[in-house]
Design a protein that fits this description.
The complex is a heterodimer of chains A (167) and B (596). The mean pLDDT of chain A is 89. Chain A starts with 12 loop residues before the first helix and ends with a helix. A four-stranded mixed beta sheet of chain A has the order 2-1-3-4, covered by helices on one side. Chain A folds into two domains: 63 residues; 77 residues, Glutaredoxin (3-Layer(aba) Sandwich), CATH 3.40.30. Chain A is elongated and about 50 Å long. In chain A, a hairpin with a 2-residue loop joins β3 and β4. By secondary structure, chain A is α+β, with helices and mostly antiparallel strands. In chain A, 44% of the residues lie in helices and 11% in strands. In chain A, α2 runs antiparallel to α3 and α3 packs across α4. Chain B is α/β, with parallel strands linked by helices. Chain B has five domains: 105 residues, Glutaredoxin; 210 residues, NADH-ubiquinone oxidoreductase 51kDa subunit (Rossmann fold), CATH 3.40.50.11540; 84 residues, Ubiquitin-like (UB roll), CATH 3.10.20; 89 residues, Up-down Bundle (de novo design (two linked rop proteins)), CATH 1.20.1440; 56 residues, Alpha-Beta Plaits. In chain B, 39% of the residues lie in helices and 14% in strands. In chain B, the strands form five sheets. A five-stranded mixed beta sheet of chain B has the order 10-9-13-11-12. Chain B has a four-stranded mixed beta sheet with strand order 2-1-3-4, covered by helices on one side. A four-stranded parallel beta sheet of chain B has the order 7-6-5-8, sandwiched between helices. In chain B, β9 and β10 form a beta hairpin. In chain B, α7 packs antiparallel against α8 and α9 runs parallel beside α11. Classes of the chains: A alpha+beta (167), B alpha/beta (596). Chains A and B meet through α2, α4 and α5 of A and α1, β7, β9, β13 and α17 of B.
């Protein structure tokens, strides 16, 4: 089974420059206080995830310890310390979707890809997350693949949906 | 002047159904026909009836087109816009009267009992145009408070209206503002909680997407009342459309001088910033939210000191939820008496509910307080689909409880919901039918709170986990009757000893299902049976003898060889070998296999 796989960090100089510029801008916008979460959000936009070297840059720039950055990064569901797949699959497990069978859809995705929530396939193609309510309860159960939204999904349709992204 | 207006819903539900493409196709086609001076196409916020999305309304006829596809755009333009013939096949059936004429939307069952205050502009104006908001009396309330009222007048008016917090606990809004006004301090903050985390609740998002200026105006009014010059809106990053519209709205308000320095030529200065949440349910709790805005782990802290005394960055702060704010400008304009004439004695005004789950008309409804659950579920919601029997409604999300069928005539307000073991919460209302197992639902919510507990205090961190494990024992069929009593005891322990609202309410889903559906728990424990047929470990697959033709298909497909029998004779499943995969039931062509 595929696990949270370790990928060597290969951030570029351009990414680092972009991050430093973004942090400088944030310090101005926020008046110097309460900018840790926004900093991590910017960093994740740039790198796709938050590996240790990136956390270190933020710690140095904001003048706090690496432990504090790590503490915040692991607290919030939005942040990932591991890379995500090329196609990020989300299955909504909010209440409205759950009572309409989203649990079965989620299990089917796990079985089909051989991964669990929070994990990524070995080829880095797919990653899966159980999401909180995304607020289109009229379409329940809902599954998303990157920006594509699939509504009223049944477990039977899962393989067909995934096949579109395999080619 | 336009001869026709086309309103396309741009809420998240309809957008997920491709309404943006529909809007673009319409604009393109109208332009191509040279009709762009006669026909105005606009994108609005949520209409509320998400089950029928994507939705489009064409005025002046008031034709309500539902489940529109991009391919339908040409037909709508050719027939309706050019030739004046309404495309009847796309009309929402409820809007067509017996005589074939179109009824007003407000006469349909879904809208008839609704009363829109907080949602008044959603689905009416284009949320990205401040002029449309102003045309609907927007910013008039702010003008009124700044030029005609003292800060104390504002607080008195809000207090007299009886407005209570719409985020869950129902604290009187006026009193909260009074505390903050009385607190000493040069710097004070006004915050808006838009970190809507209850699964199945999406009214705050719809207000921000459909009428963002109402929230901005209300926050400015609150700032004037307590003496603040800076506000923050804390919103979930998972709501990209809402964030975008809010950003546009703040920008426009600044350009019009409605945010910034010397608003309406007075001494009053106020500005607003957005802070994006990063996905933590506990940040809906007020102290946790403020800790998060400060950039830390969103952990709550003990109260007192209350935020009105020592809140964000250690300064006096008020925090209200989106829906609460959305009511404020209306109260100022129409008066406290108007507002308090709606609702019940202790719960004034209206409340927005997000109807979801096993219900026909999924969507957003706003009703006066005191409306019964029956009216919401049957008259407005259209009941459970597929003729299934209504079993329970869940309100208040992971902090609330289940309301069983026999209490369906309870008038809904803050106090009634508490007394029947649930709570208002932010207004999620999930309907369950006979196919839902109540123990499984309780387990679902506990799994959520275990995951979202911040870990700061032990009763919540460890208690919810142990409670979840006990529920797993019940659904696995390994629990004893004593376990049920222990569960109840643990529930009260967690409620009484947790630091914040998350832990104090986390056991509610378990307590309320134990109270009203104890027989289901007992069936799991004593008879090792799940009455709704949901809990997998307690399921038994059985072959109905007189329906089985002995085709052997099930036996050949069973992965563990649990099915035996000879050709043309009824087969049998060996429960000891069966792994309950359900393959046999899927394969059987005669419906001879049942689960129980």
């Amino acid at each position: 089974m595929a696990k949270k796989i370790e990928v060597p960090f290969n951030g570029t100089k351009e990414q680092e420059a972009k991050l430093l510029a973004a942090l400088a801008q944030l310090k101005i916008d926020h008046g110097g206080k309460g900018l840790m979460i926004a900093a991590l959000q910017k960093a994740q936009d740039i790198y796709g995830y938050l590996p240790e070297p990136v956390q270190q840059i933020i710690a140095d720039e904001l003048g706090v310890s690496l432990a504090e950055v790590y503490g915040v990064a692991t607290f919030y569901a939005q942040f990932s310390l591991y890379p995500k797949g090329q196609y990020k699959i989300g299955v909504c497990l909010g209440t409205a979707c759950y009572v309409k069978g989203a649990g079965d859809v989620y299990k089917k995705v796990c079985e089909t890809l051989g991964i669990e929530g929070g994990q990524c396939t070995d080829d880095l193609r797919f990653s899966l997350d159980a999401t909180r309510c995304i607020g289109c309860c009229g379409l329940a159960p809902v599954m998303t693949v990157n920006d594509d939204v699939y509504g009223k999904v049944t477990a039977d349709q899962v393989e067909g949906i995934l096949a579109k992204y395999r080619a | 002047m336009f001869r026709s207006h086309i309103l396309v819903c741009g809420g998240t539900g309809c957008t997920s159904g491709n309404s943006i493409k529909i809007y673009e196709a319409l604009v393109h086609r109208i332009y191509k026909e040279g009709l762009d001076k006669e026909v105005h196409v606009t994108q609005t916020g949520c209409f509320g009836l998400c089950a029928l999305g994507p939705i489009m309304i064409v005025y002046p006829e008031g034709a309500f087109y539902s489940q529109v596809k991009v391919e339908d755009v040409d037909e709508i333009v050719n027939e309706h816009i050019i030739k004046g013939r309404i495309v009847t096949r796309l009309l929402y059936k409820e809007t067509v009267g017996h005589d074939g004429n179109i009824k007003a939307l407000n006469d349909t069952n879904f809208y008839k009992k609704q009363h829109r205050v907080a949602l008044r502009n959603c689905g009416v104006i284009n949320p990205e145009k401040i002029d449309e908001y102003i045309a609907y009396d927007g910013y008039e309330a702010l003008g009124k408070v700044l030029t005609e009222m003292t800060p104390q007048d504002v607080i008195d008016e809000i207090t007299r209206s009886g407005l209570r917090g719409r985020g869950g606990a129902g604290f009187p809004t006026g009193r909260k503002w009074q505390f903050a006004r009385n607190s000493e301090g040069k710097k004070k903050y006004v915050c808006c909680n838009a970190d809507e985390g209850d699964p199945g609740a999406f009214m705050d998002r719809s207000i921000l997407e459909g009428d963002p200026h109402a929230v901005i105006e209300a926050m400015a009014i609150a700032a004037y009342a307590i003496g603040s010059d800076q506000g923050y809106i804390y919103i979930r990053a998972e709501y990209p459309i809402a964030v975008q519209r809010l950003t546009i709205a703040i920008q426009q308000a600044r350009e019009y001088g409605l945010l910034g320095k010397n608003i309406f030529g007075t001494d009053f200065c106020f500005d607003l910033d957005i802070r994006l949440g990063a996905g933590a349910f506990v940040c809906g709790e007020e102290t946790a939210l403020m800790t998060s805005i400060e950039g830390h782990r969103g952990e709550p802290r003990p109260r007192p000191p209350f935020p009105a005394v020592k809140g964000l960055f250690g300064k006096p702060t008020i925090l209200n939820n989106v829906e609460t704010y959305a009511n404020v400008p209306q109260i100022i304009l129409k008066g406290a008496d108007w507002f308090s004439s709606m609702g019940t004695e202790k719960s004034r005004g209206t409340k927005v509910f997000a109807l979801g789950g096993k219900i026909q008309n999924t969507g957003l409804v706003e009703i006066p307080m005191g409306t019964t659950m029956r009216e919401i579920i049957y008259d407005i919601g259209g009941g459970c689909p597929n003729g299934k029997k209504f079993k329970a409604a869940q309100t208040g999300g992971p902090s609330g409880g289940c309301i069983p069928a026999h209490l369906i005539d309870t008038p809904i307000d803050y106090d009634n919901l508490i007394s029947i073991g649930s709570m208002m919460g932010s207004g999620g209302l999930i309907v369950m039918d006979e196919d839902n197992c109540m123990v499984d639902i309780a387990k679902f919510f506990l799994e959520f709170t275990v995951d979202e507990s911040c870990g700061k205090c032990t009763p919540c961190r460890v208690g919810t986990k142990r409670l979840y494990e006990m529920l797993c024992k019940v659904t696995d069929g390994t629990a004893t009757m004593e376990d049920l009593d222990k569960m109840e005891e643990l529930c009260y322990y967690i409620k009484e000893n947790s630091l914040c609202g998350l832990g104090q309410t986390a056991p509610n889903p378990v307590l309320s299902t134990l109270r009203y559906f104890r027989d289901e728990y007992e069936a799991h424990v004593r008879d090792k049976r799940c009455p709704a047929g949901v809990c997998k470990k307690l399921l038994r697959y059985k072959i109905v003898e007189d329906k089985c033709k002995g085709c052997t298909l099930c036996a050949r497909n069973c992965p563990v060889g649990a099915i035996t029998g000879t050709v043309k004779e009824p087969h049998v499943i060996d429960p000891a070998k069966c792994i309950k995969c359900g393959v046999c039931m899927e394969k059987c062509k005669f419906g001879a296999i049942v689960k129980e």
